[in-house]
Design brief:
The protein is 1% helix and 42% strand. It is an all-beta fold. It has three domains: 2-301, no CATH class; 308-429, Immunoglobulin-like (Sandwich); 433-548, Immunoglobulins (Immunoglobulin-like), CATH 2.60.40.10. The strands form eight sheets. The chain has a six-stranded antiparallel sheet with strand order 10-9-8-6-15-16, with no helix packed on it. The chain contains two helices and 35 strands. Strand 9 (194-202) and strand 10 (209-211) form a beta hairpin. The chain has helices at 97-100, 266-269, and strands at residues 68-75, 83-87, 102-106, 115-124, 135-143, 150-157, 171-172, 182-188, 194-202, 209-211, 229-233, 238-239, 253-254, 259-265, 279-285, 294-301, 308-315, 319-320, 326-333, 338-351, 372-380, 383-386, 396-406, 415-416, 425-429, 433-442, 452-462, 469-478, 483-486, 492-493, 496-498, 503-513, 519-530, 535-537, 543-548. It binds calcium ion (3 copies). One calcium ion binds at residues 26, 28, 30, 32-34, 42. Residues 26-28, 30-31, 42-43, 261 line the site of one calcium ion.
């Protein structure tokens, strides 16, 4: 007999907290992904395939989960190797960057302040959570030793040029602060509890750091649900999924309070309009004060806003006058983000030669069409938008431009094509023209007074352009004369190809017989169809020639 025993499942050793219970990330004080569902994610891989985190065992970025925008893993160790990114004299949070911050190499960083690895992640909060659609940013780092409380800072910077590396001597940082940069400063205890987490926004001026601490919490385990930021440290010894060596543990193991991670809801902090973050700097310091002496740092990229590119294609081109064309703009974003906004098309011309970058001016703008603004998206990158139909009223060369206007910075930056760009040229060709339409009358040429005779009609249609067309239509002879007989058929069909720049000629010979006052009349009705299917009347068509018999 088999005894069935119900065993409760304890699959989570840590509470899976996240900032604002967003459900996007495990702010749980460890590095590996515990959840076996797609979300929340964590920095590193757990043992199961369903526990694939942001980075593999070498720190390479795995495919990002739903909502993921960007993730970076930075090696700032090991402790035994000279660190080329440590702060030196004068570097302070309250000072702007390039004018005051400097770095220098160090081979003896204070063990408890030596950063081994740091990582960053940006994501859009998943649907179905209280923070759905918000921009979330996470950071984490490992330190070499835990003999003392950990004091840290995290800068989220907009200027993508902020950086400093030195292999010898003091080197100044590049880059500057921008209004809206965020600084978190905190302290976690030797037991792994976050005791202080203060937040500041760079506002410039004489007091450049505005304290926004009240909008957040400290340790995620105890911070209010409404908090826009909170953090965790490890309260136990934890494994690392990549090679790590701290001061006291075995390989790939961090002792208590050697790991720190933090999450921020930037949409919440900025009331729905967060700036575009480009860089992060994690630092260690002498205290959680904004005037503390800064020690080690790890720097890296973190792009919360995608970069847009726009590609356009005018079609069809060339066209014949009377035809129409549209421009298709395709917007692509650098991260898996939503394309949303408008595309504004403008047409300039006509020009006598293909337009260049300087051709498109307000005076050459086709104001009857431009600006032509259409909606693009919302939808996942890439998205396309098609202009309204443009029907030029004159022949020549036209230049299009297209500008993507994102709804928000989350949807990329403004991107535009330039006058004269490839794919933005529209050529409008001339329509064919009747250049000769006449007749000879025998036996009394031009004087049809004999009551009967033979008339020979001839028609020439000339192409003035670079486009081949097919001609169609007819030359029909009729009238009130007693008899009209034409050889080769009446009406004469004008079906013939007309190559670019060439003439097409047609003739029709007819005999007639009548009395005074009767008429003989010839009408040409010529059409053309170009290679794009544009059809229209040949210039000068229809035309009718009539003569009256004046028999003496
Ligand atoms: Ca974690
Ligand atoms: Ca975890
Ligand atoms: Ca460093």
């Amino acid at each position: 007999m088999t005894l069935a025993i119900a065993v409760p499942l304890f699959t989570r050793a840590f509470a899976l907290t996240d900032v604002g219970n967003a459900g996007a990330f495990e702010l749980d004080g460890n590095i590996v992904k515990d959840a076996t569902t797609a979300l929340p994610t964590d920095w590193g891989n757990g043992p199961l395939a369903s526990q694939t985190g942001l980075f593999d065992s070498n720190g390479a970025t795995n495919p990002l989960p739903t909502g993921g925008l960007d993730a970076h893993w930075v090696n700032d160790g090991p402790h035994s190797v000279t660190d080329t990114t440590t702060f030196t004299t004068g570097s302070k949070d309250i000072l702007d960057i390039s004018a005051n911050w400097a770095c220098t190499p160090s081979s003896n960083v204070t063990p408890k302040d030596d950063i081994l690895h740091a990582y960053s992640y940006a994501a859009i909060a998943p649907t179905g959570t209280s923070r759905a659609g918000d921009l979330l940013v996470y950071g984490g780092f490992e330190r070499f030793a835990n003999n003392g409380a950990g004091d840290l800072g995290l800068w989220l910077l907009q200027d993508p040029t902020v950086s400093c590396v030195s292999t010898k001597g003091t080197v100044s940082f590049t880059g500057v602060h921008m209004v809206g940069d965020i600084l978190l400063v905190g302290e976690f205890s030797t037991g792994g509890t976050v005791t202080t987490l203060n937040a500041f926004e760079w506002v410039g001026g004489s007091s450049p750091l505005m304290n926004i601490t009240a909008t957040g919490g400290a340790d995620c385990r105890t911070s209010p649900a409404a908090a826009n930021f909170c953090s965790r440290s490890n309260t136990l010894s934890i494994p690392t999924p990549w090679p790590t060596q701290d001061k006291t543990s075995g390989p790939n193991t961090l002792a208590t309070a050697e790991f720190f991670e933090v999450g921020l809801d930037l949409t919440g902090i900025f009331n729905g309009n967060p700036p575009c973050i480009s860089r992060f700097i994690f630092d260690t310091r002498t205290s959680p004060s904004t005037t503390a002496t800064l020690v080690d740092y790890a720097q890296g990229a973190l792009s919360t806003c995608p970069t847009s590119t726009i590609f356009t294609s005018v079609s069809p081109t060339p066209i014949t006058l009377g035809g129409s064309s549209t421009d298709t703009a395709t917007v692509t974003l650098t991260t898996a983000s939503t394309v949303s906004g408008t595309v504004t098309f403008n047409v300039y011309g006509p020009f006598s030669s293909p337009p260049t970058a300087t051709s498109c001016t307000s005076s050459s703008l086709v104001k009857s069409f431009s600006p032509n603004t259409v909606t693009i998206g919302p939808g996942p990158s890439p998205q396309s938008a098609i202009s309204s139909t443009f029907t030029p009223s004159a022949t020549g060369y036209y230049g299009w431009t297209a500008t993507y206007n994102p709804a928000t910075p989350r949807n990329g930056n403004i991107a535009f094509t330039t006058c004269g760009d490839g794919g933005e040229l529209l050529v409008v060709a001339s329509i064919p023209k009747i250049t000769a339409f006449g007749f000879t009358n025998t036996p009394d040429n031009g004087d049809p007074t004999l009551g009967s005779g033979t008339v020979v009609y001839s028609v020439t249609i000339h192409s003035y352009d670079t486009l081949d067309v097919m001609l169609s239509g007819s030359l029909a002879v009729s009238g009130t004369a007693n008899t009209i007989m034409c050889t080769g058929g009446n009406p004469l069909q004008l079906s013939a190809p007309l190559p670019a720049g060439m003439d097409a000629t047609f003739s029709l010979t007819c005999t007639y017989n009548g009395t005074s006052g009767q008429t003989v009349s010839a009408t040409i009705s010529a059409m053309f169809t170009d290679t794009n299917g544009v059809t229209g009347a040949v210039s000068g068509s229809p035309t009718t020639y009539t003569f009256t018999i004046q028999k003496l």
